[in-house]
Amino acid sequence: MASKKIHINGIVQGVGFRPFIYSTAMKFDIKGWVRNSSAGVDIHATGDENNITDFIETIKSSPPPLAKIDTLIETTVVTDEFTDFKILPSKYIPEAFVPISPDVSICSECKNELFNPEDRRFRYPFINCTNCGPRLTIIKDTPYDRPQTTMAPFIMCDQCKVEYENPLDRRFHAQPIACPNCGPYVWLERENHKILRGDDAIQNARQLLSDGKIIAIKGLGGFHLACDATNPKAIHNLRERKKRSDKPFAVMVFDVKTASKYCTLSKSEKSLLNCKESPIVILKKKNDQVLPEAIAPGRKTIGVMLPYTPLHLLLLEKEKSFPDILVMTSGNMSEEPIVTTNESAIEELGSIADGFLLHDRAIFTRVDDSVLLENNGEKYFFRRSRGYAPNAIPLPMETKEILAVGGELKNTFCLTKNKYAFISHHIGDLKNLETYQAFSKGIQHFQNILKTKPEYIACDSHPEYLSTKFANSYSEKERIPLIKIQHHHAHMASCLVDNMWNGDGLVIGVCLDGTGYGEDGQIWGGEFLIGNYQEYERLFHLEYMPLPGGDKAISNPNRIAAAYLWKLGLEWDERIPAIHSISQEEKKIIVRQLEAKINTPNTSSMGRLFDAVASLIGLRHMITYEAQAAIELEQICNTGIDDAYDFCLEGDLIILKKIFTDIIDDLDHSVPVSTISSKFHNGVANMVLEAVTALRTLNGHHSVALSGGVWQNQYLLNKTQRLLEQAGFTIFLHKNVPTNDGGISLGQSMIANEILSK
Length: 758
Ligand code: ZN
Ligand code: ZN
Ligand code: FE
Prior knowledge:
Layout: E1 2-11, H1 17-27, E2 31-37, E3 40-47, H2 49-61, E4 68-77, E5 85-87, H3 108-114, H4 158-165, E6 186-190, E7 193-197, H5 198-210, E8 215-218, E9 223-228, H6 232-242, E10 251-253, H7 256-262, E11 263-264, H8 267-274, E12 280-285, E13 301-305, H9 310-316, E14 325-330, H10 342-348, E15 355-359, E16 371-375, E17 378-383, E18 392-394, E19 402-404, E20 414-417, E21 420-423, H11 433-449, E22 456-460, H12 466-478, E23 482-485, H13 487-498, E24 507-517, E25 523-531, E26 536-542, E27 545-546, H14 557-567, H15 577-580, H16 584-596, E28 602-603, H17 606-616, H18 628-635, E29 648-650, E30 653-655, H19 657-668, H20 673-699, E31 703-707, H21 714-726, E32 730-732, H22 744-757
Parallel strand pairs: 2-5, 8-15, 10-13, 12-16, 19-22, 22-23, 24-31, 26-30, 31-32
Antiparallel strand pairs: 1-3, 1-4, 2-3, 6-7, 6-15, 8-9, 9-14, 10-14, 11-12, 12-13, 16-17, 18-21, 19-20, 20-21, 24-25, 25-26, 27-28, 29-30
Helix pairs in contact: 5-9, 13-22, 14-17, 17-18, 20-21
């Protein structure tokens, strides 16, 4: 006989860990106990020595699907007399923390019960278990127990209670446990009247969707607006009412098979669609697809997700007369944050939706759908949110407790502790008041649930970012030091952390981006850096071009094109589509701004160069959502073309004149715009290769980190990747966080930590 104490850390609570320990103890005839503490899980195991070894091996090798063991420490202790194995009440240690689980899409066992007429939860839209269901969206505080969630008002019925208390039941301590007798319910509301509840409400909502109506649906982390994705009129109405003219809508289909009817799917794309995080996966539309162009205008791709809650499954259920694909777009008015309460849905979405499918389980934290795509078998994030936040991201080294507040658009914040970074769900555009409030409340909430109190705070060096202003006052109020970090250094560091780079030596950072505040007060975004977590040097950048009107110019690519031509000394020829699209009046204003340098910052942004080219060739002169022109330019690329325009490197500058004269020349010779776009993309990839090769010759550095919003461009990314690989470079691409500004909070925290450790 022997005894061991075992302490386990990681995601081990709210994931069926104790029942698993209990049944494993039974299997190996182990006596003793298991207990949750706010620092993890503690086990006292007594039994045959070999059995204890097997017991621990089993814990390590086959934990429950949602569990993630970070550390397991075993210590031999004096053998105690136990007659059985018990689950003891939780022990609460105030300052200790255990990571909490993200929201998890419905598991296969719950799915089976949902559609099993014999089951007592047959067709119950809130079925869940220890392996699935809501988490982050409903947690108000830790330890993760029902009274600390938005399930608190629902009193468990006797049957649910028995399941909840039985260590061998798959709903043992499933905090959101519910059934039709005791849990939340759905209802349908039209014109301020509750008209139907339960399954009738869902069936009626389906009928309305079939009839081309728009329904607001309360989901897991917020509302969706849904309509029949095969009905152009319904989509048109939705765009009109939501005031969203071109930005793509995501769709939801019942299963992978339906997805493959509309999109081409690789094996790894199939598993991404099906994974427990259930993100929106960006897929290639089939050429013969029958979907209306209005779902994703100008795109070869479409964002697809599968039903991730029981309610979604019931809504999408297959039936001949029902559309097998629904638009499921965020429930908001254009650019506003997603609505989360029934009251605000009716108020804010009242002019959009023809009906409301509501329920009475409150959403505590607004969490948007995650968006990603597959790149060479790996995940590549556009937005890391539902299903992933607040999972810990492992860090290459121990860190101080730091709060990094991120950027301004696509904001996320990040808290570090021990060897982990906890990056928030997608917060959004801080310039929106409600989003800003969610940002400051979210920071408080995360500090609470993660039991951390930052010793330092990090922010972007842009003086006008609201996150910077927040950081200034936070630093003052809490009397903790503030570290300001250059935007592209943060991008580069984010990519390095994402690859667990250990910080030894120096790396080349190719930061191709839209907008970032530069050390010289200009707008950076086409940057070649050499550096590490502590410091960087800017070795090449796109030559400065004027941006008449500053940020306002961003929505008018034709103005950008005109300004670039002016600066490069090229004629405003009316045969150039960009020039032709600007009125004489407007031209006068632009010239005046350029000559007097009124509100005309300089920029080295690669994003703006893409915008300028898109307009130059007549593709897009004005945009209705961020990066629209650049994205449309990518969409018309033709992979069969290898020709490229030439950039020139002169000193530390990347010169643009030749690109522009060559494009204008091609326009003159009626070269198709798709060819021009391909030659431009190829030219950028070649230029990256040329610049990093020059840096390698100069300094001998072989590793290249690609970060910044422009690397969302898959054509450019793949082309560049190939070129750099052939040339023998080691390439770091983003893995767990987006390459856009959603990732910079991670880089900020790491840089701050390293600066402080110097
Ligand atoms: Zn389940
Ligand atoms: Zn019940
Ligand atoms: Fe950026």
